[in-house]
């Protein structure tokens, strides 16, 4: 579901490929999430999309930002010098451990010892990796992320007056709906810690963009689970910004190869890597701006300009398309441009446009 104002803007763009960010849509969505989470702290996971204009909108609604590198820390600190930052990431350098932050998510006993060795002060959440079922998750954060119970127990005696244990951080999986996340929360909040960060992982459906995560149900469920005096925080990323972004491009060729129809588009997955990393068909709308050869109501595979068969946006989707048509891919506001391999083949980088009203 791409907003009409984004489609109207796409037709008028002088140069493509381009990203279009619908800032009013982001503002409305973030406000809805904020209202639903009364009593729960809301941080934005900057890794999903660090675009400065998006961050300025989100800053009106979030309590802070979660950053996972020195680069993200510097970027967000320059934009919002006084906003709380939580520093995460499994491979922090000594320089990152010295950065100022509101909370630091410690991933291992060795990382905690290195933090202590800096001689600075810190408020710590221990990132745990409990063995809990996460059936139906799009991605499970197992392996090197966080600590098992043995790692946590090794950390507990190490804390000092300068490096203080504040609670736990747990992010187990991505792509879970509200009832699944609440079942996990019921277990994770059943601890003696006064502060728990439940991470993100809220489901975003690329197959059905209209099916949004149930923020109201999740917020009321967390309120029921939260005991008096306990601090509960979440860190959504994709579920906040995915819907506000579109990637706009144009058809340069339509051809049939061994019975299959391919639409060749300017740009490619070096600009929008999401469908490759997620293994899905990126939702799109074709705007009939072309008058070249094409096909009508046939299965079409939409590909980019890269010299690899993996450069696929969507496969065998029934549509009508002609050379010169504009194609607008929705759901491109998170893990899109910022995770793409920009310099492969050295094509021009996309432009960025912002809708302010």
Quick take:
With about 350 residues, the chain is α/β, with parallel strands linked by helices. The protein is built from eleven helices and 18 strands. The protein has helices spanning about 5-10, 25-35, 50-60, 70-80, 95, 110-115, 150-155, 180-190, 215-225, 240, 275-280; strands at about 20, 40-45, 65, 85, 105, 120-125, 140, 165-170, 175, 195, 230-235, 245-255, 260-265, 285, 295-305, 310-320, 325-330, 350-355.
Secondary-structure map:
Layout: H1 4-12, E1 18-22, H2 23-36, E2 41-45, H3 52-58, E3 64-67, H4 70-79, E4 85-87, H5 94-97, E5 103-106, H6 109-117, E6 122-127, E7 139-140, H7 149-155, E8 163-169, E9 173-174, H8 178-188, E10 195-197, H9 215-225, E11 231-234, H10 238-241, E12 245-257, E13 260-265, H11 274-278, E14 284-287, E15 294-303, E16 312-322, E17 326-329, E18 351-355
Parallel strand pairs: 1-18, 2-3, 2-11, 3-4, 4-5, 5-6, 6-8, 8-10, 10-11, 13-15
Antiparallel strand pairs: 1-12, 7-9, 12-13, 12-17, 14-17, 15-16
Helix pairs in contact: 2-3, 2-9, 8-9
